[in-house]
Amino acid sequence: MKGFKIQHSALLFLLLALAWSWPLVTRLSWRIPHDPGDPLLNTWILWWSTQALPFTERWWSAPVFYPMTGSFALSEHLVGVALFTAPLHLVGVHPIAAYNVALILSSWLSGVFAYLLGRKLTGSAAAGILLGVAFGFAPYRASQLSHLQVLTAQWMPLALFAMHTYLDDRRRRWLALFAGAWLIQALSNGYYLLFFPVLIALWLGWFIEWRRDPRPGVALSVTFAASSLLLVPTLLKYREVHAALGLERTLEEMQMFSARMASFVQTAYLLKYWTSRDAMTQEGFLFPGVTVPLLLVAGALVLLVKRNLREAMAKRSPALFYPAAAVMFWWLCFGPASSNTISGVLSHPYSLLTWVPGFSGLRVPARFAMMATLCAATAAAIAAARLAPRSLRARVALGALLVVMLVRDSWILPMPLAAPPARVLLPNVANSVVLELPADESAVNIAAMYRAMTHGRPLVNGYSGHTPQHYSLLTTSLMRGDPSALSYFAAGRPLVVVVHRRLDPKGEWRAMVERAGGVLHEESGTGPVFLVPPRPQERKPAIGPQLPAAAVKSAAGVATLDLGSEQVIRALTVNLRWRHAEIGTDSLVETSRDGAIWTKAWEGWTGGLALSAALEDQRLVAMTIPLPDVRARFVRISTVPLWVSRELAVHGPR
Fold it and tell me: How many other β-carbons are positioned within 10 Å of the β-carbon of residue 314?
């Protein structure tokens, strides 16, 4: 295949990408691939990067989860993908079409760049094609169709190609290509931002002869470190927002989304020529096909039978590095151990990575499978090149057979396509905020974000990899029938509420909006659209420092404090933290001068107050209940659980 050039590979893999994703290319602008879930979220994310300058404060505070600041840091920002979709948005291409182009681009460029890597390592265009097919259309991708960021792995083989080429000729342009590929990959996927450096470190440790000639290793390391400095401000912003919200992944979450032995025989339901096998989560489909493992075994046997293992180690051969790296990355897919004992760490080396900053915030260790897929495909291509017979006819026949086998392993059924949410005409009211109900339904939140691209108004709803505390409070309050949460958002500006009729068969959501003062605007195809008129913003009284008080033994459901003497009481605060659902839907505050005769000082819903507190401090959630400057020695609140007496404070005037 001496006449086969890069432009030929680009055409070949483009045709394969279009065929693999068929019939997506025929419905680019009006269908979303796989499901109307994460693909619509990512469509919105890519759109938002064209509405505000990336990495500015306005960009970070996207108009979702209103009025939270820093909301964009709850999900991956996909700026590396937006580099290619933003020009499409700016010339008027529909956001769905831009997303679909990015999806097709991921498999297309993965094939092309893997081809470059395979040809570089073997000198064979045929081996390059095998690597391009094995990586660009791997069976693992069939289970990740709803995760564009996971599919966007094309920059890793390009970075490896640049590293290998620089090692051979030491030209600086390959350092520039390595830096660019690394940065775009890191800006496309937060998992690969942390996972790919593991491969880079292993590569530097294996291929660089640090004692004899460390210069190329130093140049590559400095290039990597210098280019990575550009990522620091983004990482610090994520850390700032996540720390303020108290966001972290639990060990149980990581283990749920880790591999099991069965994961490697569990085939995604979209694979055309394999019977699907159920997995515990969508991340459990790690089936690598049959062809790549066969080539790995064949390559290992060649090394052993020909007794080339010692020579391969001495020469730091890619034929040894890539299969070993593939095994290691598959091993890391098993995630962390339940305990950090020596045996646990040895059996689950991912546990060591959880001590590295950033890894403790990742939920899905099984996504190391993409790294394993790349290394295994590379090793398979090298093995195929080594196994190729001398006869041209035999080589062509073997190459064709392997390509057919790879395609059979990874080919999918016609890509399922879903219709995007229908448009809803909202009342043309200036300065309004939009909320769609029920707010605890992911499908509702995703649809609301999709529609926000059209109406452009701040959105109370939101959907992301993390749920902020204030939004959990909102959904809890609304599910309990507390209309004060709606009133909170109508303070000072109109609130437009869309109730999804299909999810409100008994009319309970509709009735609650009406109780909050909602006026029916129209009955849309989605459901009734209400306008809650703005109400005056309540002036918060200035409260003084906490007054000394002691808890008094009380009946169940009541928390009582004794101030020791009569004081002027202006407010109570309760540090709810994450436990708002444990207090009563509405509460009663009473005061007394002698502990015998009690007078009502306040009674009402708690949802709006808790929501306001969460937006000020998402971790402490210090709910403030204002009182009318009443003189008393005793104060009590009901209905509350026992722990409230420990989190309750009394404040006087400032």
Answer: 8
